[in-house]
Amino acid sequence: MATPRIVILGAGYGGLMAATTLMRTLEDGEADVWLINKHDYHYMTTHLHEPAAGTAADEKVRVPLRDVLDFDRVHFRQGTVKRFDPAGRIVELEGGETIPFDYLVVALGSEPETFGIEGLREHAFAIRSLNSVRVIREHIEYMFSLYRARGEDPAYTTIVVGGAGFTGIEFVTELAERLPRLARAYDVPEEAVRLVNVEAAPTILPGFDPSLVAYAEAKLREKGIEVHTNTPIKACTPEGVVLQGDREIRAKTVVWTGGVRGNRIVEASGLEVIRGRVKVDPYLRAPGYDHVFVVGDSAVVFGEDGRPYPPTAQIAVQEGRAAALNLAAILRGTPMQPFKPNIQGTLASLGRWEGIGIVGKRRFYGLIASLLKRGSDLRYLWQLGGMPIVLKKIRYFFA
Ligand code: FAD
Ligand code: NAD
Fold it and tell me: Can you tell me which atom of ligand 1 is nearest the CA of 263?
């Protein structure tokens, strides 16, 4: 009998954890494991706001795949998935190459949800990948450089961030620490610099613990960030944003952090989705396709309270590992295990040495929260590639 082929799409949190788990779990000859990803590196999406703001090097978030995978045990193919056919068991890459599979793990992550808001796709940036955040960082610098050259128009040094969920808050607090340095470097008076965070809901971080929200609000004020709550963005133009009530904020830089939906490729490939995410069965398989597992932001799992778990790296990692162990169980004819997430808490940064978080039932503020977040990042790196990768990266986490 031919060796079964497992193909994993995406080397983010879910896909890479599935690949490393299969690499360590399967014996030689049990399966051929393939991993397909756009880049030959993994990026830590959870830190993308830092290179976006220009406060951390790209190297902090980039993990070369060869540092965590044995390419003799996992065949890596760099390429962009165009579509996959779950029934015909074929993946098609941009350029036309097709790769057949017996089992598939879909881990293609998410994309920005723009809710059909006019002009957002065309005129706003998104924190999505290492390549996308480099553009944000360079664009902000370029706009600062134009301030003097273009008649000292403050639109060049105004930055609007749409959405005050965790991504928006982590980005604005990080950027607030860099802007004074940027202003000095480009000869821009500090009073010409505006950093504006616009949120549709009545508070920032809607639904999060009220005392931690209050702490974050105070930090945003301290850092000079203008916060507009109860203020949905209605449109985005080359000149800035239009708010509900037709008020405008002129800004040459708009970054949209207003939410995410599953990767459109998943929907286009015929799987049933809710906001682009597949409602998987208890073993993380797509309905109707017992040989197709879906993990991370491409999947949605409902808790006992009937509410979906939010799309987080924490869950993606656990799902990636669980899907890999269930695949090993299928190959060995042993029972699969239903997926049970272990939610340890939430930790978010508010700049370099500040943060907020809940772990178990305990709330954490300031430096302690920031250190706990660094610890959890290093733990993730340890899970991926052990001590060598931790030693390679640790200096970036305490720079
Ligand atoms: P991803 O990690 O996004 O990986 C998807 C992979 O698929 C990528 O490698 C991508 O290149 C690849 N890919 C996509 N399309 C294709 C294609 N067509 N062909 C080939 N490859 C493709 N969550 C937390 O739990 N804690 C945090 O602190 C946290 N912080 C965050 C901070 C920011 C700024 C952001 C944006 C998100 C944060 N999140 C956090 C959420 C978390 O990053 C996501 O939930 C997590 O990345 C999802 O993992 P994933 O494997 O589904 O997708
Ligand atoms: P989100 O959906 O959590 O937040 C988006 C925010 O944008 C919401 O507050 C929403 O009210 C607001 N919004 C939507 N439409 C708007 C409009 N028209 N005008 C103004 N505001 C608008 O999205 P996110 O922050 O990108 O987070 C995505 C996922 O990643 C979440 O599950 C989040 O928990 C996770 N994440 C976690 C961390 C962390 O744990 N540190 C950090 C970043 C992201």
Answer: 15
pLDDT digits (tens, 9 = 90+) for 340-396: 999 999 999 999 999 999 999 999 999 999 999 999 999 999 999 999 999 999 999
Chain position carrying tokens 């990636």:
320
Tell me if 313 CB under 6 Å of ligand 2.
no
Domain positions in the chain: 5-112+260-343, 120-256, 344-399
Superfamily of domain 120-256, CATH level 4: FAD/NAD(P)-binding domain (3.50.50.60)
Q: Which mutation among 9, 13, 55, 137 tests ligand 1's pocket best, with the greatest number of atoms within 8 A of CB?
A: 13
Active-site annotation holds for 170 = yes
Q: Indicate whether residue 296 lines ligand 2 (CB < 6 A).
A: no
pLDDT digits (tens, 9 = 90+) for 178-231: 999 999 999 999 999 999 999 999 999 999 999 999 999 999 999 999 999 999
Query: Do the two domains 5-112+260-343 and 120-256 of this chain adopt the same fold?
Result: yes
Alpha helices in the chain (DSSP H): 13-25, 49-53, 58-61, 120-123, 130-149, 166-185, 210-222, 264-268, 313-332, 366-397
Considering the chain, what is the average pLDDT of its residues? 97
Confirm or reject CATH 3.50.50.100 for domain 5-112+260-343, answering yes or no: yes
ipTM: 0.98
Percent of the chain with pLDDT over 70: 100
Count of alpha carbons within 13 Å of 263, Cβ hemisphere only? 23
Residue 201 CB–ligand 2 contact under 6 Å: yes
Cα(394) to centroid(ligand 1), Å: 21
**CA dist., res. 277 & res. 311, Å (int):** 10
Could you count the other beta carbons within 10 Å of the beta carbon of residue 233? 26
pTM higher than 0.90: yes
